[in-house]
Specification:
The chain is built from 15 helices and eleven strands. The chain has helices at about 25-30, 45-50, 55, 75-90, 105, 120-130, 150-160, 185-190, 210-220, 235-245, 255-270, 275-290, 295-305, 310-325, 330-335; strands at about 1-5, 5, 15, 40, 45, 70-75, 95-100, 135-145, 165-175, 200-205, 225.
């Protein structure tokens, strides 16, 4: 699979852009574990053109994570074009447009998935960005606004006509948010539409190697994107890649292995972020690194409340020493073992 001149090979695995999650430290962990392509956290066009500190900081990219895309969202064409030109100067491999975020404060302003209620504006904005920048432009969206408007087939054709280089489709409507099941049938219909020539990347409910292989084989997508299932589980990329390449399922990492990854992730978070922000934004990952351990409630609470890095390190080491080669039943079932 290629996106413009970006060579990604067969069955590429994408890390989804997620606010306050896909920061440089987590991208480091996912790249180390085999993610083929990653994105920054999504960036507000309004924040970027106004030189907002948080938005500008998200433009920081590093050689270890290439190839990488910068994802933007907004509801005004001129602001999005200006933001895309700013993002281009940061040196990513591509610019991605977010037409999929379902969060109320974004969608209700007409940005993210809110653009699914104004397809002409979506097309106008995409065409303007494609024309303005030199890099490949891609789009991430959903199958529609609600069950009465599951119109991704038409949308995909019109987006392709603007000149985008790839399209990622999350298999839920905006009305679903993240509830229910992702509908991959519509993703497959887009991919198998003879008029569609650009790569189609499928997203939604990929929770392990078996599911990933099924989606590639059943629907013929060019790549798959993994979001929530990777949080606190960066090894999911390693395990999917191994299964796709060999047909063999790797065992889920034992607690000692997870603890080693958690410690490295913590160090990277402290390296890339200042003080307490590094600790706060690690918490959602830490709670998942050890998810499924029995009688873990009290220890988990400590992981989510400690603020001193040394105390967190010591607690992770204690978990490693206590549980060692234990593997949780919950993830064993997901991995088909």
């Amino acid at each position: 699979m290629n996106i413009g001149n970006i060579l990604l090979g067969k069955y590429p695995l994408f890390l989804a852009p997620m606010e306050d999650i896909t920061d440089p430290s987590f991208r480091y962990m996912c790249k180390m574990n085999g993610a083929d392509f990653m994105y920054t956290e999504f960036i507000s066009s309004d924040g970027l053109i106004r030189d907002g500190r948080k938005s500008v900081k998200k433009l920081d990219i590093y050689d270890f994570e290439r190839p990488i895309g910068i994802q933007l969202y907004g509801h005004l064409v001129d602001a999005m074009v200006e933001a895309a030109l700013i993002a281009e100067t940061a040196g990513p491999e591509l610019i991605d447009i977010n037409f999929g975020c379902p969060v109320k404060k974004i969608a209700n302003r007409g940005a993210g998935a809110g653009m699914l209620r104004n397809i002409p504006l979506m097309i106008e904005m995409t065409a303007a960005i494609v024309k303005a920048v030199r890099l490949p432009v891609t789009v991430k969206t959903r199958i529609g606004w609600d069950d009465e408007n599951r119109n991704i087939g038409e949308i995909a054709e019109r987006l392709q006509d603007t000149g985008i280089s790839a399209l990622t489709i999350h298999g839920r409507t905006r009305a679903q948010l993240y509830k229910g099941s992702a509908d991959w049938t519509l993703i497959g219909e887009v991919k198998n539409n003879p008029r569609i020539k650009i790569p189609i990347i499928g997203n939604g409910d990929i929770d392990g190697p078996v599911r990933a292989k099924e989606m590639f084989e059943r629907y013929g997508v060019d790549g798959i994107m993994i979001g929530r299932a990777s949080v606190g589980r960066p090894w999911i990329f390693r395990d999917i890649r191994h299964f796709l390449d060999t047909g063999d399922l790797l065992p889920e990492p034992d607690v000692a292995g997870k603890a080693g990854l958690a410690l490295l992730h913590l160090e990277k978070s402290l390296e890339f972020k200042d003080g307490m922000r590094a600790i706060y934004e690690m918490r959602r990952h830490l709670s998942n690194y050890f998810k499924g351990l029995p009688h873990f409630k009290e220890t988990r609470l400590k992981l989510l409340t400690l603020t001193d890095p040394d105390q967190i390190r010591n607690l992770i080491v204690e978990i490693r020493n206590e549980w060692g080669d234990y593997r949780t039943e919950e993830m064993t079932s997901v991995y088909g073992l």
